[in-house]
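SAMPLE LOG
Freezer: B-3
Tube label: C17
Construct: single chain, 509 aa
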Amino acid sequence: MKSKTSLSRTGAARKLLCSAVIATACALPSSPVSFAQTLPNLGDTERAELSPLVERKLGEQIMRDIRRDRDYLDDAPTTEYLNSFGNSLLAVRPEARGEAGYDYFFFAVRDSMLNAFALPGGFIGVHSALMLAAQNESELASVLAHEIGHVAQRHIARMIGQQRQDSLIPLAAAVLAALAARGSPDTSAALLMGGQGVAIQRQLNFSRDAEREADRIGLQILRDAGFDTSGMIAFFGRMQAATRGYTDAAPAYLRSHPLTTERIADIQARTRDQRYRQRADSLDFHLVRARLRVLQDTTAQGLRDAAVAFDTQMQQKTRPQIVAALYGKAFIALRQGAYSRAQALLQESITAQGPGAPAQGIAMTSMAIDIKLAAGQAEEALKEAEAARQKFPVSRGIARQYADALIASGKLDAAVAYLRDQAQLYRQEPKLHEQLAKAYAEQGKQALQHLSLAEAYALQGSVPAAIQQLGIARSAPDASFYDQAMIDAREREFKARWMEEMKDGQRER
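STRUCTURE (predicted):
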């Protein structure tokens, strides 16, 4: 998993992660300059600290922890929408993928703060509250484009290089303070605090420079992708109002982002001469926001509040809002186990699109399959999933629903064959191994069931749990000689990986 020559330094990178995420928190683009002109000349210090390959590996490690968090929204329609939308932005500026050709991954987390963040190696997270606050796709695009700018400029790697240089400042101040303590304790304390203050100020200055770089790239991506840049001002105004008690009271030099009022003024100045671009939002944008309104709070009270919000939304009497509100109500009914009502509301949502509406997208199709699976209509679900797989061949969510439908309809051999092929093609998807374990359990194949669970746990970063599952598989009564050989081989690999992770943890401390 880790390169011995370079990943031994990632302990410092992990300690910097919180400040790096803050430094890359969402902000809107602000100046139209040449993309090539914004690319920095990264020095040897930054590249020695975190090469593009190591940066990606660090991002993958962080993502394993995030995926285990209960607030990570593992909702296939939402994830697929964000990745489709994010990659449409990258399509206009493919050089943003960098020399390593990062395969960006966009995901949502449940959080009531308006925020987004970039992680090392092309992983970009969006808070659910931000998605709900964005009133159109131009506003959402402005945030994602800014975060893409952070990744393209490798700001986290550069921050580590900057911190390495700044670490000498408080060290020198500490030496001077020790000498001054002989004559004046007050002078000693002042020198020590002064040195720390200079280092902190240099890091904050670097963060503001990083924001300006990301702003420039983000605005270019937004403009070239055909989105309305004026929507940034309205969105930033709402962000300012939502965080007024925290942001406007703090001086700009104490924060990793300039004041919201500064950014609004800057955006207004830089977009004043740009023409307004009207761009129709996709229906999936409204449907995903409806899903997130439900997923934001899945308690009984939360679902009641979401239903009230959808009732209010219905009164706007615009077709996309009505379609999305009915879709959201269907999702609530599904979560409450009212499957007949969910099917009826989903059909109302489809009908509300009107004659001549485009074919149903992934969000509508996925919910139709989910309702049938939950209602025990396995054969109907399988038919819909098979048709959806042909219509959306690259959809990972539909692929997993197809496997669920095969298992639910009792076609276990077909499910195992399909999932084994999928696991070979998509080696980093733990859910495929979880589904495979479920299919094996239905077949009564205990050894293979626990072998598959071991693979799922390992992909999720739970190596001790994976080793435990291998022990259970070894003692299973149906474990064949071939199974035992596979168990032994995987156990050696997992134990070696676990020992390496333990060593890295000790180096970090």
